[in-house]
Design brief:
- There is one protein chain.
- Helix content is 82%, strand content 0%.
- It is mainly α.
- The chain folds into 2 domains: 93 residues, no CATH class; 128 residues, no CATH class.
- The radius of gyration is 19 Å and the shape is globular.
């Protein structure tokens, strides 16, 4: 069952770039199998680092929503949000080793997924004069491209391959350029916050000279997009 959960979560991550319905389907399977694993292994779901705060958050929004929501569509969105939050508990059933393997897969394949999404967005932008991904509105694009962007930063710092050292900053610039095309204020602020937190951590671990290429090209691309809007 661990392997089933592992690949279900992996497929959920991949499908999140292309279809919200397929993503929700895999996520529902992952939550059910993950919680079942917790019971089979007799693990305490509250031992995770964020388990207690997340459980409190889930209880608060679920109870308050059931008391005050009156629209069917709002109830559907509540269930979706609860499943997204419960997916954290699903990973607890994997164990530390499998979870690290899953995160490693996420990081390695996210640049490819980000590239496919960027091609779709750029095509619709330049040929149809609209900003659209595979699903959702323009706000979703920035959210989806955040992980591929920061994954390129991580991979750039880890690799010793000269070709990848040149290629990865270009991908980072592509993802940031595409994410900023809609000029959504929330996306821009989110990336700035991510830059701040991620940058502080990186500058404590690495020489600033190693970080210049991966940050310079994306920032130039972002400034160019903002100047064109």
């Amino acid at each position: 069952m661990e392997n089933f959960l592992f690949y279900t979560l992996l497929l959920a991550f991949i499908s999140s770039f292309f279809s919200i319905s397929v993503y929700e389907g895999f996520l529902a399977l992952a939550v059910i199998s993950g919680i079942a694993l917790l019971f089979l292994k007799r693990l305490n779901p509250l031992k995770g680092l964020f388990s207690i705060p997340l459980a409190g958050h889930l209880t608060t929004i679920t109870v308050s929503s059931f008391l005050f929501l009156r629209v069917k569509e709002q109830f559907r969105r509540l269930l979706e949000q609860d499943f997204f939050s419960l997916s954290y508990f699903a990973t607890l059933g994997l164990g530390k080793k499998k979870t690290l393997q899953l995160v490693d897969w996420f990081i390695k394949i996210s640049p490819l997924l980000g590239t496919l999404l960027s091609i779709k967005v750029l095509y619709t932008y330049y040929f149809n004069h609209d900003v659209k991904g595979f699903w959702g509105g323009s706000f979703v694009i920035g959210n989806l491209l955040a992980l591929p962007f920061f994954a390129t930063v991580y991979l750039f710092l880890k690799t010793e391959n000269l070709f990848l050292k040149i290629l990865l900053p270009a991908f980072g610039g592509l993802f940031l350029y595409t994410a900023f095309l809609p000029v959504e204020r929330s996306v821009i602020l989110g990336f700035l916050a991510g830059f701040t937190v991620f940058g502080i951590a990186l500058f404590r671990l690495y020489s600033p000279k190693r970080l210049i290429p991966i940050f310079a090209i994306p920032l130039i691309g972002g400034i160019f997009v903002l100047s064109q809007s």
